[in-house]
Write a structure and sequence with these properties.
It is a single chain. This protein has one domain (about 1-125): Tetratricopeptide repeat domain (Serine Threonine Protein Phosphatase 5, Tetratricopeptide repeat, Alpha Horseshoe), CATH 1.25.40. By secondary structure, it is mainly α. It has helices at about 1-20, 25-35, 40-50, 55-75, 80-90, 95-110, 110-125. The model is unreliable at about 1-10 (pLDDT under 50). Helix 4 runs antiparallel to helix 5 and helix 5 (about 80-90) runs antiparallel to helix 6 (about 95-110). The protein is about 80% helix and about 0% strand.
């Protein structure tokens, strides 16, 4: 019985994975574009999604993560990353991930006071 249950679970997981591949959501498409190095196309797709729904956490978070990574790696788009992360923090004050990313960004930009404030806020949420 145990192996039958495991086989059914594996079948469900494989089916779910296949349906995701066949029917990717726009946000998954944006993530794939970014992974392929098509940053501008990923950014445009996420901008379109945010025009339709400015309160979409996942789209805004992915856009913020793209900007954040570009800031950390290439010293570009830092202001865009800060803007997106600040918007996320205002709209979703109980989410920790935007605070973590913004705190790291502040450290990169040598703003230790703001970084510390975000860490303190994270501690209060947890």
């Amino acid at each position: 019985m145990y192996s039958l249950t495991m086989d059914l679970k594996q079948d469900r997981e494989e089916y779910a994975q296949q349906s995701i591949i066949r029917n990717p959501t726009p946000i998954m498409e944006a993530a794939q574009l970014y992974k392929k190095g098509e940053i501008d196309n990923a950014e445009k797709l996420l901008d379109q999604l945010l025009k339709m729904d400015p309160n979409d956490y996942n789209s805004r978070m992915l856009l913020a993560e793209i900007f954040h990574e570009q800031c950390i790696k290439n010293d570009t788009l830092c202001e865009h990353a800060l803007l997106q992360l600040t918007l996320l923090i205002r709209k979703f004050p109980k989410k920790i991930r935007p605070l973590e990313l913004r705190s790291k960004l502040f450290l990169k930009l040598n703003d230790t006071i703001s970084s510390r404030n975000d860490v303190v806020t994270i501690g209060k949420i947890m």
